[in-house]
Amino acid sequence: MKKFEISVLDLAPVKQNKTIHDTFNDSLDLARMVEKLDYKRFWLAEHHNMASIASSATSVLIGFIANGTQKIRVGSGGIMLPNHSSLVIAEQFGTLESLFPNRIDLGVGRAPGTDGITAKALGRNPMNINQYFPQQIQELQRYFSVENSESLVRAIPGEGCDIPIYMLGSSTDSAWLAAEMGLPYAFAGHFAPQMMETAFEIYHQNYQPSKEFPQPYTIACVNGIAAETDEEAKKLSTTLYQAFVNLIRNDRKPYAPPVDDMDEIWNPMEKAHVMQMLQYSFVGGKETIQKQIAQFQKRFQVDELMITSHIYEHEARLKSYDIIRKATDALNAGL
């Protein structure tokens, strides 16, 4: 088992009886705390038309978080590139990098981050996404390059900025592309665990070194819910379970507080579906979390573990990331 970094994926979760203003302040408070705990990076994800997630204007929120912190890397996990013009994203992230030098990451994915009707409202053309997505990444690389100064179309700010691009995926398609382009690869194991092992194998076996990334680099995003005891963590996890039941039911309402008995909420089929989607969820006290992470890392040998945490109470969420940091430190110290 090799040593690994840990980071945060924040969806800017909107909770029942809380405002979106509250959500943004909680995200900033979390970023400041994990920065003190030496988490490597703090990423935000682009989603649309969901009352439970407030990170739709991802670039704007990255600026808010970066401005309120000092050293932690801040970025997108990710920008859903086919929703946007490559030039606009180059300009936005060039602006962010110019404001916060050497702290900005650009993670990109091809999924819409929403439903079909909203994807259409965003201007996506599903007929050419798979063909155009690799071209968009090449466009970003060109806009960020110094050599593009002679082009008729330039990203100002953006040109000459050292902004690392990360490929996101929830299936094997992006693993092939990340390997071919020599980019780091982040897999969405927090909701799509089925193909993660195969995707990482494809990525490592086919990796073509690039100037920026001579070695492959893998990130696994997982759910993490830690508390003082296993029992407390299991109860906190019911907020996560309710959120995924709502997804199955196409009900995008804000996150709900934990409950004592999930069997009063889901039916057996929904339970089986949710537990399958949440296969890579670490839930428990420090010792339990430590064992779960150790088992995961022995199997996958990732370079970085990115934790997303659906916990209703803000203070409990902060405590969870503190416990996970301590569990990870204990593991890495023994390697």
From TrEMBL:
<dbReference type="InterPro" id="IPR036661">
    <property type="entry name" value="Luciferase-like_sf"/>
</dbReference>
<dbReference type="GO" id="GO:0016491">
    <property type="term" value="F:oxidoreductase activity"/>
</dbReference>
<protein>
    <submittedName>
        <fullName>LLM class flavin-dependent oxidoreductase</fullName>
        <ecNumber>1.-.-.-</ecNumber>
    </submittedName>
</protein>
<dbReference type="Pfam" id="PF00296">
    <property type="entry name" value="Bac_luciferase"/>
</dbReference>
<keyword id="KW-0560">Oxidoreductase</keyword>
<feature type="domain" description="Luciferase-like">
    <location>
        <begin position="20"/>
        <end position="298"/>
    </location>
</feature>
<dbReference type="InterPro" id="IPR019949">
    <property type="entry name" value="CmoO-like"/>
</dbReference>
<dbReference type="InterPro" id="IPR011251">
    <property type="entry name" value="Luciferase-like_dom"/>
</dbReference>
<comment type="similarity">
    <text>To bacterial alkanal monooxygenase alpha and beta chains.</text>
</comment>
<dbReference type="InterPro" id="IPR050766">
    <property type="entry name" value="Bact_Lucif_Oxidored"/>
</dbReference>
